[in-house]
Amino acid sequence: MRTFTMIKTAIAAAVIALGAVSPASAASSASDKPTVVLVHGAFAESASWNGVITRLQAQGYPVVAAANPLRGVRFDADYVASIVEHTRGPVILVGHSYGGAVISNAVQDNSNVKALVYVAAFAPDKGENAAELSGRYPGGTLGPTLAAPVTLKDGNKDLYIQQDKFAQQFAADVAAPEAALMAASQRPITEHALHEASGDPAWKHLPSWFIYGSADKNIPEAALKFMAERAGSKKTVTIQDASHVVMTSNPEKVAALIIEAAEQSAH
Questions:
Q1: Centroid of chain to Cα 29
Q2: Domain-located, residue 92
Q3: Which of 21-30, 90-99, 219-228 has the lowest mean pLDDT?
Q4: Tens of pLDDT along 41-84?
Q5: Any domain includes 197
Q6: Number of domains composing the chain
Q7: Are strands 189-190 and 208-213 parallel, antiparallel or unpaired?
Q8: Could you report the per-residue pLDDT of 165-185, keeping only the tens digit for each?
Q9: CA dist., res. 246 & res. 208, Å (int)
Q10: 105 in a structural domain
Q11: Is the alpha carbon torsion for 232, 126, 222, 145 positive or negative?
């Protein structure tokens, strides 16, 4: 518990520092476009958004790719909420995979969040968790590809995908050299995070957009479709034969949907 508190304190300090020198704050003050805050999910990291970032920046959008701690829904949501709080102007929150659960809980009292975009992402209702939602429908094959859990000092466990199974499970439509880099640089998620219940979700009072691949092996397409319909998605894009990392394999389509959400939420 002491270690967890120390980590949370350190992250809070980093966010305060970010607020003082935030590129997003500086950029958004000079632009009438909202800042796009991208939140990666389990087994990924911020670079997974690079193709999307390039396209958003080319259109003049300020972007922050948050380093999601992947420690727990509430913990991670508080971290992202702090980034939003220290960002001037309107914000579009975008979550991939488990990052969808994070953005669903990260709006809190931040009235500057105008829209949510779910990229092959969980959109849990209150009390639901990622593990249960992914197993509610057939088709998910993540379990057998996980490596032996790494036990932490606090008794929690970090989860990774075996590197030799990563491409087929996670990024089947990504070029082999890039998929190998993603496997080596993957960020672990705690077992606790995947089983922690969501709070009241922001998609109940904010407009949302969804995009995902039909060949997703982490979250079955049926589960993604169910969550999009339940959230009242303004627009749902299904990319045929795309893997779980649609933002990496199809960055132009993901960026286009984010821009559409930004433009529509500005009216």
A1: 25
A2: yes
A3: 21-30
A4: 999 999 999 999 999 999 999 999 999 999 999 999 999 999 99
A5: yes
A6: 1
A7: unpaired
A8: 999 999 999 999 999 999 999
A9: 17
A10: yes
A11: positive
Strand stretches in the chain, DSSP E: 35-39, 63-66, 91-96, 113-119, 150-151, 157-159, 189-190, 208-213, 236-239
pLDDT of amino acid 93: 98
Q: Which residue has the higher pLDDT, 28 or 261?
A: 261
| Residue 223 resides in a domain | yes
Distance of CA 184 to the CA centre of its chain: 19
As a whole number of angstroms, the distance between CA 247 and CA 110 comes to: 26
Task: Decide if pLDDT at 5 tops 60.
Answer: no
Residue 31 pLDDT class (50, 70, 90 cuts)? low
Token pair 């970010």 is found at 18
What is the predicted pLDDT for the residue at 53? 98
Q: What are phi and psi of 239, to 5 degrees?
A: -100, 115
- Residue identified by tokens 């990319």 is 239
CATH number, domain of 18, equals: 3.40.50.1820
Of 225, 224, 211, nearest to 259 by C-alpha is 211
Measure the CA–CA gap between 19 and 158, rounded to whole angstroms.
30
- For residue 94, what are its two tokens? 């975008």
* Percent of the chain surpassing pLDDT 70: 88
Chain centre distance of CA 102: 7
Q: Are 84 and 37 in contact (CB under 8 A)?
A: yes
What does the alpha-carbon distance between residue 244 and residue 175 come to, in Å, rounded to a whole number? 14
- Give the residue numbers spanning the domain of 80: 2-24+31-136+193-265
Predicted pLDDT of residue 194: 98
What's the helix, strand, coil split of the chain in %, to 5?
A: 45, 15, 35
